[in-house]
Write a structure and sequence with these properties.
Thiol Ester Dehydrase, Chain A
């Protein structure tokens, strides 16, 4: 799993216990997973369909730098399934895991639409395809 996105835990992200508020973390995860799905499917019309059990295994405190790792685990006809791990950047200690997140590719009519993808595409490969002569 690649960890590309990093967040700095600030005072506005804390709960009354002084640790990272789960709602803030879930918002970050949903946003980053949606961006990942958009890049993989090549379509900005992607919506969250399902998020499995969320397992918080440790806390994060103000000043911590956390990083989110997301990877595709399955490509459906109109969907993409992802998995996510959040960990402390410095200690590498896991904070949270989400085993399954499903995003659906939509057409211009707002209905599920086939995306035609079957495997992970890396940004470096996408740029190569864009620069191929016609």
């Amino acid at each position: 799993m690649n960890f590309h996105t990093r967040k700095w835990v600030k005072p506005e992200d804390l709960n009354p216990n002084g640790t990272l508020f789960g709602g803030s973390l879930l918002r970050w995860i949903d946003e980053e997973a949606a961006i990942y799905a958009i890049v993989q499917l090549g379509n900005q019309r992607v919506v969250t369909k399902y998020i499995s059990e969320i397992n918080f295994v440790s806390a994060s405190r103000q000043g911590d730098i956390i990083e989110l790792g997301i990877t595709a685990t399955e490509f459906g006809r109109t969907s993409i399934t992802l998995t996510c791990e959040v960990r402390n950047k410095i200690t590498r200690k896991s904070i949270l895991t989400v085993e399954k997140m499903v995003f659906v590719n939509l057409g211009e009519d707002g209905l599920p639409a086939p995306h035609g993808r079957t495997e992970i595409k890396y940004v470096k490969d996408q740029f190569k395809e864009d620069s191929l002569p016609e």
